[in-house]
Amino acid sequence: MEQVAFFVDGFNFYHAINNLSKKDSSKNFLKWVDLRSLFGFFIDRHHQEIADIYFFTARPTHIANQQVLIRYDALIKAYEHLGIKVVKGKFKEKSTYCPLCKRNFTAHEEKQSDVNLCLYMLQCAVERKYDRLFLVSRDSDMAPAASMIKRMKLTNLSLLTPPEMQPSQEISKIIGKGGRIKETHLAKSLLAECYRDKDGNVIVTRPSKYTPPTR
Which of 57, 82, 112, 147: CA 20 to 30 A from 74? Predict the structure, then answer.
């Protein structure tokens, strides 16, 4: 069986789903997504199996709404429980000037996640750890890493674009447009309501805001 790994740009992935929920709040439940189940739609199960999933993210500690942090922590805990390799960056303050109001204000930007993803992906390619890598992002900043892997013929590389987004033109020119995640894929790939440890104790529960609609 061909060993496949997925490298997920968590920031890109989350905001793609969040854009769906902004249009229709009843779609919040799509954020409670099981990555292993989701990515199963994009492999040939007869010849491929998912070896590892890497999820690159940063905890949004600057957000005042504690419920957002609680939901974030629950999702990350569920991923770690299921064996997803969560790689954490951080948010950093930066001073930004607004030309309209003519004053500086403090903004926050995610740091390290893009660099972490590229470094991990390159390392796995150089080590030939997997037979195929999937890059889950539409961020053109990933293009140089994709180009190096392609140019050096280190391993097979495919692109998977988050929902409601167009594939990155820069990356597509290097490795092709690849697959696109659809809303229907998300809806069919939800995490369980809760997860327990080996002793039966509940370690994470689905946030109420992510409860799927009753049919």
Answer: 112
pLDDT digits (tens, 9 = 90+) for 116-127: 999 999 999 999
Sheet architecture: strand order including 85-88: 85-88, 48-57, 2-9, 132-136, 156-161, 179-180
- Strands 48-57, 2-9: pairing is parallel
Q: At what angle do helices 113-126 and 143-151 cross, to 10 degrees?
A: 10
pLDDT value of position 60 = 82
Express each pLDDT in 4-45 by its tens digit: 999 999 999 999 999 999 999 999 999 999 999 999 999 999
pTM attached to this predicted model? 0.90
Cα distances from 47 to residues 44, 131, 178, in angstroms, run 6, 11, 18
Q: Contact at 8 Å (CB) between 185 and 162?
A: no
Nearest CA among 51, 38, 25, 32 for reference residue 162: 38
The residue among 93 and 7 whose pLDDT is bigger is: 7
Assess contact for 8 and 35: CB atoms under 8 A.
Answer: yes
Handedness of CA 31, 59, 138, 8 (dihedral sign): negative
Tokens at 30, concatenated: 């799509």
The string over 29-45, giving b where at least 16 C-beta atoms fall within 10 Å of a residue's C-beta and e elsewhere, is bbbbbbbbbbbbebbee
Longest dimension (CA), the chain: 60
